[in-house]
Amino acid sequence: MHNVPLASVDTVARPLLAIGTDYEPGTLLDTHSHRRAQVLYGMSGLMAVETDDGAWVIPPYSGVWIPAGKPHRVRMQGVSTRSLYIEPAAAPREGTHCEALVISPLLHQLLLASMAIPALYDEQGRDGALAQLLLHEVRLAPTMPLFAPIPQDVRLAQQCKAFLQSPNIQTAPDDWALQLHKSLRSFNRLFRQQTGMSFGAWRQQACLLAALPRLSAGQSVTQVALELGYDSPSAFSTMFRKRLGRVPSGFGRAASAGVNR
What we know:
It is a single chain. With 261 residues, the protein is α+β, with helices and mostly antiparallel strands. It has 2 domains: 6-140, Sandwich (Jelly Rolls); 151-257, Arc Repressor Mutant, subunit A. Helix content is 39%, strand content 21%. The protein contains 9 helices and 10 strands. It has a 5-stranded antiparallel beta sheet, covered by helices on one side. A 5-stranded antiparallel beta sheet has the order 2-7-4-5-10, with helices on one face.
């Protein structure tokens, strides 16, 4: 199914619905939720996903798992998607949080083939077998480190959200501690309790999330590195390669031109 509204088929008695959708650059899907769980797979461009748990940036040929009923907003930057909408009882992944997913070559091909599956498919035929294989592969998909959690503490959450809008790797935890009227030790303990990460690790992750859309938009590695406060492009490139397993210049080319699968 292609460019079919979910609402028109949501009540069909099948565990899985597959819909491909094309979005204009800059399209914002404001906060909403689905009765079904969703696998959102971007064939091109970037997807920026936000929930009350945190923020993700999903690069091309990667996906995001969105649990049933989870409120989320998505900004599409030149994205053509393939989505799987899965009945909660058939959900192949557990947990209540979104996850960035590594899409294997096999799952990529299955998602392409899913476009031909009608809403009311034969569960005992080829389409039913394809749907079951999709569920198995989604269950096995590993996660990617593309997430910056948002704390529940209101004042700390405000600081985190402001930082995500304008991240800088040089920002010191001492400044945040001062704003919260806490000692550095108390602040670091609070931050780890609220996010499950050290401040330094979270800061790095936020900078990585900010780098991806800039690189995909054609900014040079040097420009992105300096904007994010890195001492040198090589320091930024080392972090990027360590976190994502590829050089930032290669990511920019892949995001703009597509990836050979």
